[in-house]
Amino acid sequence: MSQADANDKTQxxxxxxxxxxxxxxxxxxxxxxxxxxxxxxxxxGSVLWELGDRVKKVLDSIKEDVRQAAVKELGGMxxxxxxxxxxxxxxxxxxxxxxxxxxxxxxxxxxKQALGSKFSLFFEETVTHKPHKxxxxxxxxxxxxxxxxxxxDAVERQEMTPRVSFRRDRLSRREDxxx
Length: 179
What we know:
There is one protein chain. By secondary structure, this protein is mostly helical. It has two domains: 3-97, no CATH class; 108-153, no CATH class. The chain has helices at residues 3-12, 15-32, 38-73, 108-115, 119-122, 135-140, 145-153, 173-176, and strands at 79-84, 90-95. It has a two-stranded antiparallel ribbon. Strand 1 and strand 2 form a beta hairpin.
């Protein structure tokens, strides 16, 4: 496909019609899921998952082009700009200032020793605390009830939301014989 053909194809894409059709389709899917059985929901979920992946890939490519245009417009300087589409769409791009970080593996203790008291002029030290992997087992082994209470009051259990992912290119358990 020539560049002219590609440009003609993108210019003929009607974003208003596509927007309306996609939203109506999603509304239809959402309303059809009310009362649907789990097998149907899984099937629809796998379709939406695949579409989401494809949308993300297309959007990432578009974002890269928009970033480049914004950097050019702002002359590479920190700031933000709003770019308009050819109809109702717009994009806001914020160029943030560069930040410094210490790369993994850097001998920070060696730097601290070399700089001595000057170290704190250049580096901020942050301390974080998290419960040890075996926190609960270790607390059970503490004999002092007050220490146990202090330890247990210092943490809270955070139940994790189970992760869900879908696929459309794989045999199901039923077809695989693992039902």
